[in-house]
Structures are given as C-alpha cells and as structure tokens.
Amino acid sequence: MNQLIQVCYGIDDYKTKKREINAIVKAAHETGCDNLTVITWDYEAKETAGGRDIYYLPLWKWLLEGRA
C-alpha cells in the first residue's frame, strides 16, 4: 500500500497548514496516491482538500499504531 507522509510540528498557524496541505495534495496528484497522512505533535483530525482525504495524527499515536 502506498502512502504519502508529511511531517509538521505544529499546524495551528493558517499559513503553515495551507503550505502543508498544498504540498501533500500536489504530491498526491503527481503520484496518484490516495493515502495521505500528516504527522503532527498533537493535532488529530481528518479533512478533505483537493478531493483527497488527509489524516492528521500526533506522532505518539502514529508510532504506537505502527503505521508505515
């Protein structure tokens, strides 16, 4: 299973979040990958952008779930 992972410490700032979303959505369009994850320090959510679902996970949770 293919997966794109973007890492960002904090996603609270609008400009930072927009930058991270644009980067992962662009990569998804170029690679055809639909499994998009942004690893953060403490933010968890699921959002849709550019027609793709993006999962935000805190680092500790990603590590414990063994996602790779």
Helices and strands in order, then pairings?
Layout: E1 4-7, H1 14-31, E2 36-40, E3 45-49, E4 52-58, H2 59-65
Parallel strand pairs: 1-2, 2-4
Antiparallel strand pairs: 3-4
Structural notes for this entry:
This protein is α/β, with parallel strands linked by helices and 68 residues long. It has one domain (4-65). The chain is 37% helix and 31% strand. It is built from two helices and four strands. A four-stranded mixed beta sheet has the order 1-2-4-3. The N and C termini lie close together (10 Å).
Largest β-sheet summary: 4 strands, mixed
Count of DSSP H/I helices: 2
Order of helices and strands: EHEEEH
Main structural class: alpha/beta
Q: What is the rounded Rg?
A: 11 Å
Average pLDDT confidence is 92
Question: Which regions are unreliable across 5 or more consecutive residues at pLDDT < 50?
Answer: none
Instruction: Bin the helical content.
Output: 25-40%
Number of domains: 1
- Portion in beta strands: 25-35%
What is the distance, rounded to the nearest whole angstrom, between the alpha carbons of the first and last residues?
10 Å
Taken from the alpha-carbon principal axes, the silhouette is globular
How would you write the strand order of the largest sheet? Answer: 1-2-4-3
Overall number of strands: 4
Features of the shown structure:
68 residues, 2 helices, single chain, 37% helix, alpha/beta
